[in-house]
Write a structure and sequence with these properties.
Layout: H1 3-28, H2 36-53, H3 55-70, H4 72-81, H5 88-105, H6 114-134, H7 145-153, E1 155-156, E2 160-161, H8 173-200, H9 204-207, H10 210-229, H11 235-258, H12 265-280, H13 310-318
Antiparallel strand pairs: 1-2
Length: 319
């Protein structure tokens, strides 16, 4: 057993446990044990469990992105300080100052990649489980010989085995067609998810930073990577990937709509929605200082009668 297999063993065991658990649940409610739909839904259940477990990581990612926004002015000062300096000493000094800034605020630019990095072992683990089942081998845990054989024979839409790939399809044209459609859907969903973050949930300061330009480059590079790497993945893994991207898209939509980055277009849109909502409810907002405050008329004070002096009284009486 190689080192890669040793590392994947506990991940494969957990994947098999989740798959078998959902398979048992779906068969208990009436689905056939050997049906491809049962195993496809089990893979979708695997997505739900994995992505639900990653929600705390996602929340931490949001917080780190906000911190990166806060330190953007300080980061620009460091970059301006070493601008035009190409010597090794200056580069090392700039790197030290940048890392010190990240450490001071408890953030890191790589935190945005953490959710997908944590999912990579799941991709490879599911790939290994599918490959073993497709080749008639039993699993390492709860996926016994019978269940492994059923998983290996399971098909997507009843025509394409889940363990087949575009390069290993036994002449099944439907495998190539479905794989091509899944690759396009995977790539498009990944691109749309990143695009909605960069176009709606970035403040003007963030858009002016070098990190934003790097993210724009990755916006176009990553889909191309997925486009070519998807050719070697089994249909079951690509289905997992696509459902996971849909989860990410919906999750990002909810976050951007309800907890947008301050100063971003999404934040302005949210303020506009809240203002319309308050207007419909008849809530009158106090006028801003810039528009002038509403003057409140104070009640007039009643004037007390002035006492009449003695001299004045005498003159009045003398008349």
């Amino acid at each position: 057993m190689d080192i890669f297999a040793i590392i994947l063993w506990p991940i494969k065991w957990a994947i098999e446990a989740i798959l078998v658990g959902f398979h048992t649940l779906f068969t208990a409610i009436g689905l056939e044990s050997e049906a491809g739909l049962t195993w496809v839904l089990s893979i979708a259940g695997l997505v739900v469990v994995v992505r639900a477990a990653l929600i705390p990581i996602f929340v931490r990612q949001i917080k780190n992105q906000r911190k990166m926004l806060e330190i953007s002015p300080e980061l620009k000062k460091i970059q301006d300080k070493y601008k035009g300096k190409r010597d090794q000493f200056s580069r090392e000094a700039m790197s030290r100052d940048t890392m010190a800034l990240y450490k001071k605020h408890g953030t890191n630019p790589l935190s945005s990649c953490l959710p997908i990095l944590l999912q990579m072992p799941i991709f490879f683990g599911l790939f290994s489980v599918l490959n073993s089942s497709f080749n008639g081998l039993s699993g390492v845990g709860l996926l016994n010989e019978q269940l492994s054989a059923e998983f290996g024979r399971a098909t997507l839409f009843g025509i394409a085995p889940l363990g087949s790939t575009m390069v290993n399809n036994d002449g099944n044209v439907w495998v190539i067609v479905i794989a091509a459609v899944l690759i396009v859907l995977m790539t498009a969903s990944q691109f749309i998810t990143q695009l909605q973050i960069m176009s709606k949930n970035q403040s003007p300061e963030m858009k002016a930073s070098p990190m934003y330009r790097q993210q724009r480059i990755l916006l176009y590079i990553l889909p191309v990577v997925f486009l070519f790497s998807g050719v070697a993945f089994p249909l079951g893994v690509m289905f997992y990937w696509f459902v996971s991207n849909i989860w990410t898209m919906v999750q990002q939509f909810i976050v951007i709509r309800n907890m947008p980055t301050p100063g971003s277009d999404a934040a302005l849109a949210r303020e506009a929605r809240l203002a319309k909502k308050r207007q419909r409810r008849g809530i009158v907002e106090p006028a801003d200082e810039a528009e002038g405050t509403i003057a409140v008329e104070e009640p007039k004070k009643t004037q007390r009668p002035q006492p009449v002096s003695k001299n004045r009284a005498k003159k009045k009486g003398g008349r």
